Amino acid sequence: MIVAHLDSATLARTRLAVSPLAEALNWLELTVLRTSHPVYGAPGTQARHALRDPDVALLAQVIGCRSHGSTPDLLTPTPPAGATSAVLAAQLDTVAATPADLAWRQLHDPQFSTAPLPAAVRDAAHAGTFAARAAAGLARFWRAAVADLWAALKPVLDADLAERSRALATDGMGRLLGSLHREITWTGTALLVDKPRQTQSSLADTELVLTPSALVWPYLSVQLADPGGAFLRFPVASLSTPARGPAHGLTRLLGGTRATLLHDLDVPRSTTELGRRHNLAPATVSYHLTVLHKSGLVLRNRDRHHVLYRRTDRADTLLADA
């Protein structure tokens, strides 16, 4: 159980914010671990090709050597206050500015990993270049693999942010904190987080940032022991796993959501209809259909005021083989 005591000054400084860098790090993790997101599917070829970049590969090695599922704090800076459009650049600057000795300590912290660090990570930490290379790798991975996906993620995150803000105005901070995730309990003076590790901390006059996440969904990520970067990253409430599932082999090839949509395109359907049938945000459907269209698996035709999608003969063959 994680226990964090919050004083009144910390509650007064608690705010909501979107973290583009956190979404990028989650997408990179899915790429490295070769797994899929329950809603957004598996990262595509652009994400995998980005791993060829030396700085992105360095981050991939950090993700691959974790033994406790944690991440060095320098890679998860809290989003600063201000316009969302400027947040990513500010977060990357924060990563790059991490002192070399702090980066070294975090990478060698047993809470991060009990296994020996990969040679490339150890050498970068020893040379004092890890933070700058990590920031460069995150920026390159964003451009290669996340920038296009962001068009689908941002409306979902903004909508959740607006809903939480309304809940804060209506019910107050205590009720909001207790509603973020089933693993969180607010006692009136402390946050209790149902996690395997046992920690206790007290946040006094500390900024606590509450961050909705689409790519951490349906899990909860917390950092409550660091007064300089305390956050709760909680899953957005609007996502759900598609109800219908296609063949297992096709799911592994395309990712769950894209395979589900392709399975349902035996007749022409619009993004609105597909979103309604599978409980997905229209922006999410649009993103996956764009990927399928670029891959030659769906056709796109306009019917008066609607754009309709239908799978191609190539997709029919793929489904039959699956």
From TrEMBL:
Residues 145-238 form the DUF5937 domain. It comes from the Bacteria. InterPro entries: ArsR-like_HTH, DUF5937, Metal_resp_trans_reg, WH-like_DNA-bd_sf, WH_DNA-bd_sf. CDD domains: HTH_ARSR. PANTHER family: ARSENICAL RESISTANCE OPERON REPRESSOR ARSR-RELATED, HTH-TYPE TRANSCRIPTIONAL REGULATOR KMTR. This is Helix-turn-helix transcriptional regulator.
